[in-house]
Amino acid sequence: MHIVVCIKQVPDTKNVRIDPDTHTLVRQGVESIINPFDLFAVEAALQIKDASSATITVITMGPPQAEEALREVLSRGVDAALLLSDRAFAGADTWATSVTLSAAIRKLGNVDLILCGKQAVDGDTAQVGPEVATLLDIPYATFVKKMEPLDAQHLKVTRQTDEGTEVWKLSTPALITVIKEVGEPRLPSLRHKMRAKKAAIPVWGIAELGLDANDVGLCGSFTQVVRVFSPPRRTDRVIIEGSLEEQVEQLYRYLKEAKVPGI
Amino acid sequence: MKALVDGKKCTVCGVCSDVCPFGAITVGETSVEISDECTLCGMCVDTCEFGAISLPEVGAGPAADLADYNGVWVFAEWRDGTVHKVSYELLGAGRQLADKRGVELAAVLLGHGLGEALSSELIAYGADVVYLVDHPQLARFTNEAYADVLVDLIHKKRPEILLAGATSIGRSFIPRVAASVRTGLTADCTELDISEEGLLLQTRPAFGGNVMATIVCPNSRPQMATVRPKVMRPVRQPEHPGRSEVIEVSDGIFQNRVEVLEVIPEQDQTAKLTEADIIVSGGRGLGKAENFVLLEELAQLVKGAVGASRGAVEEGWIAPSHQVGQTGRTVAPTLYMAVGLSGAIQHVVGMQGSKIIVAVNKDREAPVFDVASCGVVADLFEFIPAFIRKIKQERE
Known about the structure:
The complex is a heterodimer of chains A (263) and B (396).
Chain A: E1 2-7, E2 9-11, E3 17-18, E4 25-26, E5 32-34, H1 36-51, E6 55-61, H2 67-74, E7 80-84, H3 94-108, E8 113-117, H4 128-136, E9 140-151, E10 154-160, E11 164-171, E12 174-178, H5 190-198, E13 203-204, H6 206-209, E14 224-229, E15 238-240, H7 244-257
Parallel strand pairs in A: 1-6, 1-8, 6-7, 7-13, 8-12, 9-12
Antiparallel strand pairs in A: 2-5, 3-4, 9-10, 10-11
Helix pairs in contact in A: 2-5, 3-4
Chain B: E1 4-5, H1 15-19, E2 25-27, E3 32-34, H2 43-47, E4 53-54, E5 72-76, E6 78-79, E7 82-83, H3 85-101, E8 105-111, H4 116-124, E9 129-134, H5 143-157, E10 161-165, H6 170-181, E11 185-189, E12 191-194, E13 200-206, E14 211-216, E15 223-227, E16 243-246, E17 258-265, E18 278-282, H7 292-301, E19 305-308, H8 310-314, E20 335-339, H9 345-348, E21 356-361, H10 368-371, E22 374-377, H11 380-395
Parallel strand pairs in B: 5-8, 5-10, 8-9, 9-16, 10-15, 11-15, 18-19, 18-20, 20-21, 21-22
Antiparallel strand pairs in B: 1-4, 2-3, 6-7, 12-13, 13-14
């Protein structure tokens, strides 16, 4: 069984904040991390490998430094890594990203299962997984917390919905996006760290993928950002201090005046 | 590719360099250099007061037949035979867009054996027409069946705008629709408008909610967006005239590569976080699992749901389905009460869309007070029981 895991390197958003005076983004010490949901996808792949014999290839599209993210995942035990990097990929929206990833997966060939995190924490769109599945013309399931092979051609997954859970049966090859319930990501091991350090990571650009520069990156995108601005700030903040009775009374009146249903 | 600087307009003031999240802009003596680190995020474009920075255009695309597309569509969701609230909210937003464009507003209803009442309700919330597809394969949601039928309708009717709820259904199958018809899709919009050129302006949070970005889809149709529940306002207009139209689809559309084996509703009703008007959320400040009883009592009293920070979930005090934040649910209730939680950014991004945020924390310096509309500096173990008594007392 050949599993492909798609990961993304994202800015660590806990270090991104807006300067309250200038209303601009403060970027001090913004580091890159692997999208947390993608680590769950890596873990899910490793669990399948633990239980049966599987080969795992991890791929990412990004700038040359995204190679760090791939080495980290290699050190957790995946077998191979592939970097999709080309200046032409810059500015890609979810469609152009999906075009690039699906071209790479098609070129890898013989893929039985593709795993992704449910969404990336920088964009929060949750679109790339389903779009890759659509471009590859394979079935998919999103927000999956548990999966098990039923037979050689079928997979049973449990997915989280707004109302509860659903159990789906999918034919393979299939694409699955996972949530944290699939299991806590294991840590890198010394043995795999050594291997990761030396591993050769191929880099594919538009030439290797047989794509035209107009089909990828900003040129190949349908959507475009026309304006970026600071969210409106709360200017009406109330701080309630004083005795317990006063505080209770004040909060009750505050919520009553705001006509909160149920209060 | 990178952002473009117009040397004639640039005053080398350096503001763009300060806002670039990727450190891609270097300010020299007489000019500004943008390095290959640039990801075309657009942060600098809006900050430049001289209009000196621009982004390269998106692909030219086949712009020829854009004029053939008209009308605004709302994908109408239902649960247990009744329309999901988010669909009414989308019709409220869609009505305004349709009026601005001078076109029809349609609701698209996919299902099996759904009553007439659903169509009438959709019309009463502003739809001029309801397109109804009734097929046994649509009785239960699957990505493929829902997407492929909607794609078929889009090819037949050609709407210029399509809106859907950012629910677990919308977020799951709408990307397949967008990719199948080859158009753009913007997730989780919080604001929608029409530009002077008639384009859909889609505004959404970016960078973990730290900034807002307005996005357009200039060269492909329909322009597609998902919108989070509780963001738009439903407007019921019982006299609004509308018609409903049944559309037949051929059995050949259904691929049957996915089978729904089981649908298990959540036992714990309070866990319906995304739909609750009031959420009472607890963090590590609660100290132990037993203390969540306090929050449950308050939540039940106001018919709300109980949420939790990642810290509380990691301690094992409450099930992961209650987690709000980056790795949990994103919620936007009328009232969000953050009790005994510090307000880490990973938590805040999941709840900052709430209309009113009340923070209860004894630490006056806790970051949660920065996002709160109302902060109560108090010991939660004294304050919450007293607040519960107050509500009960007022009701008597």
